[in-house]
């Protein structure tokens, strides 16, 4: 059972640090202890480096003792998905190929976080190279859902979601290419935000699909999510796709508990007849709650939604096949076929170093980019992506936000979908189109399913309107107590 302090929000921890009721070292040690006690059961972390964590906490305490905490994340431990480079701290992307890889530089998002005084608690488990929806594609060990350890936490940022949910860390960073922050956040009962494409620098995030990848915050509450987003966002000249107006300031938000004057659209395509009845019922209750808070609810159409999964599973593997070409057994770490020819080293390292799902994506991606198939698949997918974007533009001419369920089902059993890639891919049916359109979206806890497992509500905003979705999510959160319920592991 989690201690009381482990569930405190950032405002409270910040006050405790300011009043010197607790130090960053004490706080970090408490979270480290909790993590060590529960990691074997949950498989959340791949690397925990106590020395690094405690040294960073000591540094934070030095400034806090004279000047007080300088930001909401100052002195606060953060769990970081193990696909984000941390200088001198092993970063594996959960792949055998990078099992001993120690980066020589820091990602922009984490270096901003450390500049704000946050503390690196450890590196969290994921699906290998962020490809998956259950964390079972980790080549080390699967991560388990803290609400029910026979079930998956979702993926690919499953370790980060489970760490926050199980109170091993107050905050975590994930990455989201087609749903990897939002879906695990939903399945673990926490908040997760995929920023607009360009809001957070991708520099130092091991690339999966560069035109879709975004690093984003995961936390127990909407406010904490906003604080973490503020600490990592901003234009970065090291990432040419980062947006000029990327800085995000939490101070500009108005934390109202009413939604009068806001119009929220419900895309009909996200409520198909086949939708799980418990998910539908829960969604209808969420809509009712938003209406009671003063929002105007309107039905809208996103007619190209049905092509989202096919389109994503062409574009993302195409980019992955190109991005992953750099892992050849010569650069970076692990090598197979040591004393053989160069081409033998390439073949053996890539065959033995990459897991089955990563190989499937590389094959798919290479196929859709190859001559003769490029026009039929890749080019066609890019055209469909344009249509999906236009759908959102048209919907946003009528409404301020859109809402959908985050996941079509609650957390599923470990192993129940791993033999059937297509059914696994369908886990992302409600998240991929938003990624293809480059829009910001947040998943917030909105109740529990038939097995008493958390469900998530996805709120989608216009490009760069993180402020709007956070404000709306906050009003919903405050009207309910879902975010306060924690698993008892
Ligand atoms: N589950 C999706 C996939 O397997 C999304 C992954 C992600 O967002 N990184 O590609």
Structure in words:
This protein is an alpha/beta fold and 489 residues long. It has an eleven-stranded mixed β-sheet, with helices on both faces. The chain is globular and about 65 Å long. The mean pLDDT is 96. Helix content is 38%, strand content 12%. Helix 9 packs across helix 11 and helix 9 packs across helix 12. Helix 8 links the parallel strand 7 and strand 8. The protein is built from 15 helices and eleven strands.
SSE blueprint and pairings:
Layout lengths: L9 H9 L5 H19 L2 E3 L2 H18 L9 E5 L26 H8 L3 E6 L33 H8 L5 E6 L5 H7 L2 E4 L19 E6 L2 H11 L30 E5 L9 H16 L3 E5 L7 H16 L18 H12 L2 H14 L4 H23 L4 E5 L15 H5 L6 H5 L4 E8 L5 E7 L5 H13 L11
Parallel strand pairs: 2-3, 2-4, 7-8, 7-9
Antiparallel strand pairs: 1-3, 4-6, 5-6, 5-10, 9-11, 10-11
Bound molecules: glutamine (GLN).
The site of glutamine (GLN) has 13 residues, from loops.
Briefly, what is this?
38% of the residues lie in helices and 12% in strands.
Strand order within the widest beta sheet: 1-3-2-4-6-5-10-11-9-7-8
The ordered string of helix (H) and strand (E) elements is: HHEHEHEHEHEEHEHEHHHHEHHEEH
Class from secondary-structure proportions? alpha/beta
SS elements, strand count: 11
What is the gyration radius calculated from CA atoms? Answer: 21 Å
Strand content: 5-15%
Helix content: 25-40%
Q: Largest sheet at a glance?
A: 11 strands, mixed
**Residue-averaged pLDDT:** 96
The first-to-last residue Cα distance is 6 Å
Question: Compounds present?
Answer: glutamine
Shape: globular
Number of helices: 15
Unreliable stretches (pLDDT < 50, length at least 5) are none
């Amino acid at each position: 059972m989690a201690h009381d302090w482990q569930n405190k929000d950032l405002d409270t921890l910040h006050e405790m640090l300011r009043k010197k009721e607790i130090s960053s070292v004490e706080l970090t040690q408490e979270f480290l202890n909790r993590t060590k006690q529960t990691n074997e059961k949950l498989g959340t972390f791949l690397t925990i480096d106590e020395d690094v964590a405690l040294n960073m906490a000591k540094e934070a305490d030095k400034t806090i003792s004279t000047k007080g905490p300088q930001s909401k994340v100052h002195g606060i431990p953060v769990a970081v998905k193990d696909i984000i480079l941390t200088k001198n701290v092993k970063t594996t992307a959960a792949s055998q190929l990078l099992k001993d890889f120690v980066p020589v530089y820091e990602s922009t998002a984490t270096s901003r976080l450390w500049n704000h005084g946050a503390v690196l608690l450890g590196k969290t488990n994921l699906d290998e190279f962020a490809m998956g929806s259950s964390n079972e594609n980790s080549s080390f060990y699967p991560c388990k859902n803290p609400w029910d350890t026979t079930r998956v936490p979702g993926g690919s940022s499953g370790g980060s979601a489970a760490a926050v949910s199980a109170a091993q860390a107050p905050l975590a960073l994930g990455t989201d290419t087609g749903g990897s922050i939002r879906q695990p956040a939903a399945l673990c009962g926490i908040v997760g935000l995929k920023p607009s494409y360009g809001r957070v620098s991708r520099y130092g995030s091991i690339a999966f699909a560069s035109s879709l990848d975004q690093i984003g915050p995961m936390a127990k509450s909407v406010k904490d999510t906003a604080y973490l987003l503020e600490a990592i966002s901003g234009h970065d000249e090291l990432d040419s796709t980062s947006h000029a107006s990327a800085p995000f300031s939490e101070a500009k938000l108005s934390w109202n508990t009413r939604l009068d004057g806001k119009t929220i659209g419900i895309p009909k395509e996200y409520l198909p007849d086949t939708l799980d009845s418990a998910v539908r019922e829960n969604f209808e209750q969420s809509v009712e709650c938003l209406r009671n808070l003063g929002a105007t609810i309107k039905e809208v159409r996103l007619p190209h939604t049905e092509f989202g999964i096919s389109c994503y599973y062409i574009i993302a593997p195409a980019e992955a096949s190109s991005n992953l070409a750099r892992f050849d057994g010569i650069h970076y770490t692990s090598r197979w076929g040591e004393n053989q020819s160069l081409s033998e080293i390439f073949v053996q390292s890539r065959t033995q170093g990459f897991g089955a799902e990563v190989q499937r994506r590389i094959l798919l991606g290479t196929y859709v980019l190859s001559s003769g198939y490029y026009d039929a698949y890749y080019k066609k997918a890019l055209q469909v992506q344009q249509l999906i974007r236009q759908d959102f533009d048209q919907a946003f001419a009528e409404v301020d936000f859109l809402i959908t369920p985050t996941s079509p089902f609650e957390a599923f059993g470990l192993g129940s979908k791993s033999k059937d890639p297509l059914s696994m891919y369908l886990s992302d049916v409600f998240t991929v189109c938003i990624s293809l359109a480059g829009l910001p979206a947040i998943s917030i806890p909105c109740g529990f399913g038939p097995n008493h497992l958390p469900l998530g509500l996805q709120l989608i905003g216009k490009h760069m309107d993180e402020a709007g979705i956070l404000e709306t999510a906050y009003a919903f959160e405050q009207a309910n107590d879902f975010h306060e319920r924690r698993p008892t592991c």
